[in-house]
Amino acid sequence: MTNGGKAHTKRAVESLLACGSTNIGAALRKAATVLDDRLYRNTIKSVILRSDVEDTYTVPPCGGYDRGANYDMLVLPSFVRTDGGGGCHSPPVHTFSFGKDHNVAVMHTLAEVTDGTFSFIENEAAI
């Protein structure tokens, strides 16, 4: 990444604000758009999703893990792993859950369906 790209990325990250709700579906749609709109494309790409709470938009609140919930609906078609050739592979979504209020089922499903990884970090200071 160029120095200008690094500075732009740093400003973008520093401009992020927490607004009291979590929309994982919108975050994944934005990630897909960013990947699709890249000027420079290479075969190595992935998405990192970090959350410390339940999704409050896409998956209806259910008071914890719900065996009947369809968490797969959060996974966009562009993130579903493909085994086809041609050098164009879907990006894995690596999920990181922080604290006690996250939804393990959502984060694990996203990682599993996209061939990503799931990590739980109980204490952010341990990073």
Defining traits:
3 helices, alpha/beta, vWFA_dom_sf, 3-stranded parallel β-sheet, 12% strand, globular, 127 residues, CLCR, Rossmann fold
Rg is 16 Å
CATH architectural grouping = 3-Layer(aba) Sandwich
The CATH topology label is: Rossmann fold
Q: How confident overall, as mean pLDDT?
A: 77
Contiguous runs where pLDDT drops below 50 for at least 5 residues: none
Q: What is the chain-wise order of helices and strands?
A: HHEEHE
Structural class label: alpha/beta
The N- to C-terminal Cα distance equals 24 Å
> What's the story with the biggest beta sheet?
3 strands, parallel
Strand order in space, largest sheet: 1-2-3
Structurally, how many domains make up the residues?
Answer: 1
Helix segment count? 3
List the helices and strands and how they pair.
Layout: H1 3-14, H2 24-36, E1 47-51, E2 93-98, H3 104-113, E3 118-121
Parallel strand pairs: 1-2, 2-3
InterPro entries: CLCR (IPR051266), vWFA_dom_sf (IPR036465)
Short description:
This protein is of the alpha/beta class and 127 residues long.
